[in-house]
Amino acid sequence: MILSINHKGLRLYYEDGNSSKLLSEYSRKVGRILTSLDAVTSEEDIVALGSGIHKLSRDFSDFWSIKVSANYRVIFKFDSGDVFEVDYLDYH
Q1: CA distance 23 to 65
Q2: Which of 3, 8, 19, 75 fits 27 for a cystine, CB–CB 3.0-4.6 Å?
Q3: What is the pLDDT of residue 91?
Q4: What's the rounded Cα separation, in Å, for the pair 64 and 51?
Q5: What is the DSSP string of the chain?
Q6: Does the pLDDT value for residue 92 go beyond 90?
């Protein structure tokens, strides 16, 4: 279950279905990612979401990352069955 979303555009989309703050070409994929994250209950569920998902390191060692596109990622923390601090980043 998603407990908190840091990115204003993601939060708006998750809570109200309003994707106006996201790039339109990625809004559907981001929507699928949020729906999937809302359903995960274990790290095995996260890994089962497919390729482009991995645990980050260094300054972001508590975060997981899901690839949206070549440049964009959804990152989040996971603990005790809950997803939190969800963010949307441009890596480049």
Answers
A1: 18
A2: 19
A3: 78
A4: 13
A5: -B--B-SHHHHHHHHH---TTS-GGGHHHHHHHHHHHHH--SHHHHHTT-TTEEE--GGGTTEEEEESSSSEEEEEEEETTEEEEEEEEE--
A6: no
Q: What is the pLDDT of residue 51?
A: 86
Q: What is the CA radius of gyration of the chain?
A: 12
Residue 77's Cβ-side half-sphere holds a number of Cα atoms within 13 Å equal to 12
pLDDT digits (tens, 9 = 90+) for 35-84: 999 999 999 999 999 889 999 999 999 999 999 999 999 999 999 999 99
Amino acid in position 69: S
